[in-house]
Amino acid sequence: MNKSIIARNISKKYKLYKKSSERILDLITPKSYGEEFWALRDVSFQAEKGDVIGFIGINGSGKSTLSNIVAGIVPETNGTVELNGQAALIAVSSGLKNDLTGRQNIELKCLMLGFSKKQIEEMEDDIIEFAELEQFIDQPVKSYSSGMKSRLGFAISVSVDPDILIIDEALSVGDKAFAEKSLAKMKEFKEQGKTMIFVSHSIGQMKQFCEKILWLEYGMVKEFGNVEEVLPKYEAFIDNFKKMSKVEKEAYRKEALENHDVFI
Ligand SMILES: Nc1ncnc2c1ncn2[C@@H]1O[C@H](COP(=O)(O)OP(=O)(O)OP(=O)(O)O)[C@@H](O)[C@H]1O
């Protein structure tokens, strides 16, 4: 099979609560509390092995929710995701345990991924070196800056050699030198024919890296296609969107949602 990701009709419902007591009542009583919010609506896309796909869209359009669902970290409400191979997600907040040290986090994450103690010992030094955390690796992660956390998350995820690598804004924090090193690693992965999903607000990075673009808008697929085709349309949209007033933006949002078919 040449497909590495098949996402079919993914929808994600969150509940928004005004008070924390509503959240508890919603769990323990038959009555429904809170307001339903659909972060993703009927999203389908497929990736071939070796595809590098960029997720773009304005803030809140559902990019992180979708990447978390593809990575198996957040459950979908409706729809299915089929993966051919193991996926690893790198995000600024990617599952590091704050009370554990950097080293303990490496060990925990690798154990969870099925590596043996001996394999982990062999990988550990490379991870620490790649993350540039030699001095700090035995400190608790809660004392790390967001750049340090991101470096550690990136180093762990690439060292486990996943078939599908999902990178969510992880290159936007930290210094330029590390971003360049990470981009070089991603190029290496690309040459090895691994599938990558790249979430970023940087149109420059999208151009540099991605072959295909999935443009999300209010949780829906606006466009999915080749980068040369979709990115110029997105750039034009963003220019326009930035100029809209609050009222115009709200009217645009309402129209986009109304034009979408009922999906549940
Ligand atoms: N755990 C949650 N509970 C409730 N709502 C959520 C939750 N996570 C995300 N959302 C909402 O879902 C929508 C999509 O969020 P998501 O983070 O996926 O968007 P995004 O495109 O990645 O945004 P950004 O570019 O700002 O990172 C947003 O309106 C967000 O507020």
Automatic annotation (TrEMBL):
Domain named ABC transporter: which ranges? 22-243
Enumerate the UniProt keywords alphabetically: ATP-binding, Cell membrane, Membrane, Nucleotide-binding, Translocase, Transport
* Keyword Transcription in record: no
Alphabetical list of SMART domains matching this protein:
AAA
**GO CC, alphabetical:** membrane
Q: Which domain of life is it from?
A: Bacteria
- Annotated InterPro entries: AAA+_ATPase (IPR003593), ABC_transporter-like_ATP-bd (IPR003439), ABC_transporter-like_CS (IPR017871), ABC_transpr_TagH-like (IPR015860), Bact_Polysacc_Export_ATP-bd (IPR050683), P-loop_NTPase (IPR027417)
KW Nucleus (keyword) present? no
Q: Which family does it belong to?
A: Belongs to the ABC transporter superfamily.
Protein's name in the database: Teichoic acid transport system ATP-binding protein
- Which species is the source of this protein? Paraliobacillus ryukyuensis
The organism's lineage is: Bacteria, Bacillati, Bacillota, Bacilli, Bacillales
